[in-house]
């Protein structure tokens, strides 16, 4: 596998999850791409670990950007989005928060959710 996060032209979504480092970094990613699925996770969370390969696959297979926020490192950012449990998945479309779900969702449900916003 190539380690390059981009698979082609500028503006195309990365093929692997983007690890968020700050609130401004998340804002930049949300503003730079049409559809962003943010995974608020914790390294000690079992369901988060089970969701990891699903999200990596979605990053590669869909036009959405998958962004990951470690709630232990960025507690204030998690609080901003009302994250009370992990994993929490927040979907942004065109810079606006569109959906939020707490708990791991199956790959097909996540793919359908993403495609509902990318096929417009």
Automatic annotation (TrEMBL):
NCBIfam families: thioredoxin. Keywords: Disulfide bond, Electron transport, Redox-active center, Transport. The active site is at 45 (nucleophile), 48 (nucleophile). The record marks 39 as: Deprotonates C-terminal active site Cys. PANTHER family: GEO12009P1. This is Thioredoxin. CDD domains: TRX_family. Gene3D superfamilies: Glutaredoxin. It comes from the Archaea. GO terms for cellular component: cytoplasm. Disulfide bonds join 45-48. Residues 1-20 are annotated as: Disordered. The record marks 46-47 as: Contributes to redox potential value. One of its GO terms (molecular function) is protein-disulfide reductase activity. It comes from Natronorubrum bangense JCM 10635. Residues 1-119 form the Thioredoxin domain. The keyword Transport applies.
């Amino acid at each position: 596998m190539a380690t390059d996060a981009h698979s082609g032209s500028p503006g195309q979504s990365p093929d692997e999850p983007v690890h968020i480092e700050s609130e401004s970094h998340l804002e930049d990613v949300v503003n730079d791409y049409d559809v962003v699925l943010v995974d608020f996770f914790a390294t000690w969370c079992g369901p988060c670990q089970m969701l990891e390969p699903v999200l990596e696959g979605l990053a590669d297979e869909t036009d959405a950007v998958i962004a990951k926020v470690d709630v232990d490192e960025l507690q204030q950012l998690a609080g901003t989005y009302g994250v009370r449990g992990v994993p929490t998945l927040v979907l942004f479309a065109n810079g606006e928060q569109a959906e939020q779900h707490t708990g791991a969702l199956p790959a097909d449900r996540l793919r359908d959710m993403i495609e509902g916003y990318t096929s417009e």
